[in-house]
Amino acid sequence: MNPWWVLPAMVFGVAGAWLLYLASPQQRWRAAPLRAWPGVACALSSLALLWPAMGAAAAVAMWLTVLMLVTTLAPFLGAWRARRREGAA
């Protein structure tokens, strides 16, 4: 495993999952959702960087784990942020 490929792959994976979450109409971070193509591009770039560094099965498993972690935490962080904003106002 080459750590110089894995670190940017993780950054692209987190950014891709976050951008895909921001493309959802139910998200609470922005007034209007973003387009989905930047998130898809970042997520696929992440997989493309992981694939030669780890092999097929490990790359897909790690890629899916990162995407699921971020997309699971993003709604909770959005709700927490909205609650803090309501409390401050």
Structure explained in plain terms:
- The protein has 89 residues and is an all-alpha fold.
- The protein has one domain (3-87).
- Helices cover 80% and strands 0% of the residues.
- The chain contains three helices and no strands.
- Helix 1 packs antiparallel against helix 2, helix 1 crosses helix 3 (56-88) and helix 2 packs across helix 3 (56-88).
The counted number of beta strands is 0
What portion of residues belong to β-strands? under 5%
Unreliable spans: none
Shape: elongated
Set out the fold topology:
Blueprint: H1 3-22, H2 37-54, H3 56-88
Compose a concise summary of this entry:
The chain is mainly alpha-helical.
Could you list some keywords that capture this structure?
elongated; 3 helices; 89 residues; mainly alpha
